């Protein structure tokens, strides 16, 4: 059951506190309505995001100039214009999922019904992990959900086999963070340790990455308490030292060696 503070924040809105799919207004401070496509906006580039026929670097393309496509440029400008409301919406989605993630929007998709409005879906870190894209996973794993919202803007190719992507970081409004401080603190306390966010890639990303097969996790009883997490190195210091799983380099089952006397055994 939501607390009185959270219930007051959503008073008079059409957003349910008990479902994972917000529909319209988030709270009394938000004048912009955001829509969830329930996965429909991701269908055109589903193969580009989660396909296994090609590597992630061949499916997902970064660093394209956004001003080369009018749809992308207008959407990025609109996101910046409604950043206050979008930051509140992103915080709302984090509180519902209780997991780090990102807002996903398709620059070539508009909600049905003739409305010229984009849709924003929420993908958690575990879902973004299936893309095998290192940048997307790092963005969702190493950010503070109480102060920022990660937004990914996609533009799929005509074939749907590849997709261009842009990233924006939106600040969460201070008044909403203070109003929902109790709920945010509970959600942050329930998150896994940052070192437990394992990045999945389909090729070796660099010399500083650690293979999952050589990583020794401490036993649960030896893990430091959350009160001692401030003594850990900063994110930038161990950003390239998190556990990485490399799919194509996983060692297979070792062959069983024959004993030395079996070489001389004679079957009668």
What amount of the residues lies in strands?
5-15%
Largest sheet: 5 strands, mixed
Q: Whole-number radius of gyration?
A: 23 Å
Instruction: Give the helix/strand class.
Output: alpha/beta
Count of strand segments: 8
Detail the poorly predicted runs.
1-30, 207-235
What would you call the shape? globular
Number of domains: 2
Please state how the strands of the largest beta sheet are arranged side by side: 1-5-4-2-3
The span between the termini is 76 Å
**Mean pLDDT over all positions:** 76
Q: What series of H and E elements makes up the topology? A: HHHEHHEEHHEEHHEEE
Individual helix count: 9
Helix content: 25-40%
Organism: Gymnopus androsaceus JB14
Domain CcmS related: 45-175
Protein name: CcmS related domain-containing protein
Region (Disordered): 209-230
